[in-house]
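Design job #97: recover the sequence.
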């Protein structure tokens, strides 16, 4: 009986290293899978960053192309002056036309008997906010961005 127990115990003792090796291998495989998953996720993020960088470079090239018209002189002063004034003039005309329409809407709403708290949401809606933000962003946004970038670069040096 002791011999039988000893042989069973000996057989089980021989399995212990195999069982330990199995659990060790399982843990190593789980670790390797997790590392590979993190590598794949990092590659995705890296690809997204490369796409963002490419989009930013594309935006920069587009801005350079848009403003390229003002880089060279034609040699004729009045043509150069006209070329410089076209965009501000169009902006002023559109802005004044918008202001006149808004004033006309306000007068019509007041004459129609609406209260101020009823008029404001009609006149100052999301479209008007977006248009005004676009104009201000176009004329002043790039300057603010350049100043902010210059300040950031000065601080980081």
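Job complete. Output follows.
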């Amino acid at each position: 009986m002791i011999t039988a127990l000893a042989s069973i115990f000996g057989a089980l003792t021989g399995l212990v290293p195999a069982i330990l090796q199995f659990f060790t291998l399982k843990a190593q495989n789980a670790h390797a899978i997790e590392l590979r998953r993190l590598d794949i996720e990092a590659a995705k993020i890296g690809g997204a960053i490369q796409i963002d960088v490419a989009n930013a470079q594309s935006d920069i090239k587009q801005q350079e192309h848009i403003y390229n018209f003002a880089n060279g002189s034609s040699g004729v002063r009045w043509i150069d002056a006209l070329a410089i004034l076209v965009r501000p003039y169009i902006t002023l005309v559109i802005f004044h036309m918008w202001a006149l329409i808004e004033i006309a809407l306000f007068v019509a709403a007041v004459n129609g008997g609406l209260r101020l708290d009823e008029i404001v949401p009609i006149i100052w809606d999301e479209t008007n906010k977006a248009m005004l933000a676009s104009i201000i962003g176009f004329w002043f946004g790039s300057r603010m961005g350049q100043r902010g970038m210059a300040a950031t670069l000065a601080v980081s040096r």
